[in-house]
Design goal:
The longest helix is centred in the last third of the chain and has 24 residues. This protein has eleven helices and eleven strands. 52% of the residues are buried. Helix 6 links the parallel strand 6 and strand 7. Helix 1 runs parallel beside helix 3 and helix 2 crosses helix 9. It is globular and about 65 Å long. It is of the alpha/beta class.
Length: 347
């Protein structure tokens, strides 16, 4: 569970708010695999009738994680194409802290006037159970478009002298708690650690960072031994001689990193995926939601967007329209609640 420091930080933010390219995953658990796109629906055709509401000033997109991380990169790519189908700018605001909870709280508390969106992921749905002081739930957001579901790359510092997850596990057995694994708590960086620990019985030391990019920089600098990052984060530093990719977390290898075997291939029965979405704070009018349903359906269907997404190492998931996205989110939330809670409580 997270510290009292996080609780105090959340309380401060809430007080201020009150004043003012791989193949698609096909199995379910979010902490282990993403649900198939068919559980939502295929992206709907853009609406023929224009929404009665249209933005007249820039849209702020709150990203709860730092610049250069997977959420940030995906948000900026999606925003670039959203601008193509609208008449306004989409401005990414990185509101970091509390392993994503500060930004998520800001999204949930924003005025639902259509001018504030949020970059979201499925693991944030469980903060209500795992993080002291969190007040947002699955009902605090209107899901608009779920556009990718990604596995991660497990990366180690070269001086650790491991080249596979199997070798890392063996080293962790010899040095329980001494091998440090970094990232935000209850995140795409640390759920893979939890899953490896639960599958093998080993224990890693925990190091907390705000976002995957910061965790990876720490690994490259020798200040942390291991982390788990998204392909876009790994590719940004793949030529760094101080890091080595030792495994990927999906059922299948990542197309853009075919030489890196999965954990399961290496004898560790663990896996992980995370889906990403754009959301509104709950309470937006039907006209506002209809506007974004129309624009975001066009983004997801855009062949250039799909190519850029794949080039960045993201795995396309075509869930457009708030009804389909909400259905998908709720099914995934209920299907994976028990496994997420079990993984967290085992720590």
């Amino acid at each position: 569970m997270k510290t009292k420091i996080l609780t105090l930080a959340l309380a401060t933010v809430m007080a201020i708010g009150m004043v003012g390219c791989g193949s698609k995953p096909s199995s379910t658990p979010a902490s282990s695999a993403a649900p198939a796109a068919s559980s939502g629906s295929e992206a709907p055709a853009p609406a023929d009738n224009a929404s009665a509401w249209k933005p007249t000033k820039p849209i702020t997109v709150i990203c709860p994680y730092g610049a250069g991380g997977g959420q940030d990169v995906a948000a900026r790519l999606f925003a670039k194409y959203a601008e193509k189908y609208s008449d306004v700018k989409f401005v990414i605001e990185n509101k970091t802290g509390g392993s994503g909870t500060i930004g998520n709280t800001a999204i949930a508390m924003a005025k639902p006037d259509g001018y504030t969106l949020g970059m979201f992921h499925n693991l944030s749905l469980y903060d209500q159970y795992l993080v002291e002081g969190v007040t947002y739930t699955q009902d605090s957001f209107t899901q608009l478009a779920i556009f990718c579901a990604d596995s991660t790359v497990i990366v180690a510092n070269k001086n650790l002298n491991v080249s596979s997850i199997a070798e890392l596990v063996e080293l962790a057995k010899q040095k329980p708690g001494e091998i440090t694994w970094g990232g935000p708590e209850f995140s795409s960086q640390t759920y893979p650690r939890m899953n490896v620990e639960n599958a093998t019985g080993v224990t890693f030391g925990k190091m907390i960072f705000d976002g995957g990019a910061n965790a990876l920089a720490a690994v490259a600098g020798g200040n942390c031994n291991v982390t788990s990052v998204f392909p876009s984060e790994y590719f940004a530093m793949a030529d760094n001689p101080d890091i080595v990719a030792i495994a990927t977390t999906g059922e299948e290898r990542i197309d853009a990193a075919k030489d890196v075997g999965t954990m399961k291939e290496q004898g560790v029965d663990a896996k992980f995926y995370q889906w990403r979405s754009f959301v509104l704070p709950a309470g937006a009018s039907d006209d506002i939601i209809a506007y974004y349903d129309d624009v975001f359906a066009k983004v997801i269907a855009d062949p250039d967007f799909q190519k850029d997404l794949a080039a960045g190492g993201f795995n396309l998931l075509e869930i457009a329209g708030h009804e389909a996205a909400t259905k998908y989110m709720l099914e995934d939330f209920e299907a994976n609640k028990e496994s997420i809670m079990s993984a967290a409580k085992a720590q």
